[in-house]
Specification:
single chain, 401 residues, alpha/beta, six-stranded mixed sheet, 28% helix, 26% strand
């Protein structure tokens, strides 16, 4: 597990966790709670902000809704985890150091890499300069400010995935004076059953959202978007939700990454090129029996917990266990008064059953609100965070790794 720093007569193993998203917070709380009182392990969590970002609510932030102030340092109190606020600017596996804000250096023996994804505005010309994103709370607040100043006009939501659907519905409901256009290659809810998909379309129609499926945005202009084929759609604001990209730090550090820049891991979530580095959440390319996991909160938190457990096993001289996860639902908000929940098989394919309407709203809110109290429970009862669907027969991969 790497070299240890000598502190007096005791050997201290330094674990540094990068990123306090859903996965990083799970790793920090789980590890901190389980090593509390031990002098041979030091856990440090690095994040750019002290406030925890509820990524599942950013579409609400984008329409000006006030969310709870969730303090990361406050939650960490009593765990022994040290919090460092700052931007990670470099990782050096050779010296096992991390550079913070270019002027501070942290040393580690084990690194947990959880710097997740942001909107991929580099994929299309003009998106970086002219489109808004939901990459973080500040980005969402910038869009909220723009929308609040519009008394009329058109908002284009580029990307018909789940984030695009939720954002288009939220904007249309919150700002009925605006025309909302949802653009995407696929129809909204394409991966859902016919019943769930029909409900999504009916809700968007009720809210006045104009859906254009089968189109591709090839350029974002200051006041419009250009589609493949030459058509332009005027826009007073463009929200970019089409695709994500990961931080380039992992690739720059020489870690083995996939085509999307995610750290390629072994069965225990260790980097295949640097086993002293664990990768979690959106930052990791984690292969399961059904394929490589995609980034969601439901999968991200288990990766953080599993990385913490793997580190503990390794410190105790044991072999880490393989990570297994199976999906179980896809909840989607359709404004404040409507939603759809598509239940899925472990490989994320849709089951026949789904929830719609008010029942789905209650279910979705329960899911969205659950991470923070889950972290609180893990502080007192770490084992409470170690339960999630393993995927059953969908995760029998044999020697596929």
């Amino acid at each position: 597990m790497g070299t240890r720093q000598q502190t007096g007569a005791a050997a201290t193993h330094r674990v540094v966790i990068l990123g306090a998203g859903y996965a990083g917070m799970a790793a920090a709380i789980q590890l901190g709670a389980r090593v509390k009182g031990r002098e041979d392990v030091q856990v440090t969590l690095v994040n750019a902000q002290e406030r925890f970002t509820e990524r599942m609510r950013l579409h609400m932030t984008a329409t000006g809704r006030q969310l709870a102030e969730l303090s990361i340092p406050q939650l960490l109190e009593g765990t022994g985890v040290r919090f460092v606020r700052g931007w990670v600017t470099a990782v050096d596996p050779g010296t096992r150091t991390v550079r913070i804000d270019d002027d501070r250096v942290l040393s580690y023996d084990t690194l947990v890499y959880g710097l997740g994804g942001v909107a991929d505005t580099a994929a299309v010309p003009g998106a970086e300069d002219h489109a808004y994103t939901l990459s973080g709370a500040q980005d969402a607040e910038l869009l909220a400010d723009r929308l609040a100043r519009l008394t009329s006009g058109t908002v284009v939501v580029a990307g018909s995935g789940l984030t695009g659907i939720e954002s288009a519905a939220e904007i249309a409901e919150r700002h009925p004076q605006l025309h909302v256009v949802l653009l995407g290659r696929q129809e909204p809810g394409a991966a859902m059953t016919a019943k769930a998909r029909k409900h999504v379309h009916a809700a968007l129609d009720r809210l006045g959202v104009r859906v254009r499926a089968g189109v591709e945005v090839v350029k974002v202009l200051p006041d419009a978007v250009e589609l493949a084929g030459g058509e332009t759609i005027a826009a007073d604001a463009v929200l970019w939700t089409s695709g994500t990209r990961t931080s380039p730090l992992a690739a720059a550090a020489g870690l083995a990454v996939d085509g999307r820049g995610r750290v390629v891991t072994d069965a225990a979530l260790r980097s295949v090129s640097h086993p002293e580095v664990y990768a979690i959440g959106d930052a990791a390319a984690i292969r399961q029996g059904y394929g490589v996991m995609h980034g969601t909160c439901q999968g991200g938190m288990p990766t953080g917990v599993h990385a913490a457990l793997s580190i503990l096993r390794a410190l105790d001289g044991k072999q880490p266990k393989p990570f297994r996860f199976g999906y179980y639902h896809t909840p989607v908000s359709l404004g404040r008064g409507d939603a759809v929940v598509q239940f899925t098989r472990p490989d994320d394919s849709p089951r026949r059953i789904c929830l719609t309407g008010r029942l789905a709203v209650r279910y979705k809110e329960t899911v969205t609100a659950s991470p923070w109290p889950t972290y609180g429970r893990m502080k007192k009862m770490p084992a409470s965070g170690a339960f999630w669907p393993r995927g059953g027969r969908f995760n029998r991969i044999g020697d596929a790794r």
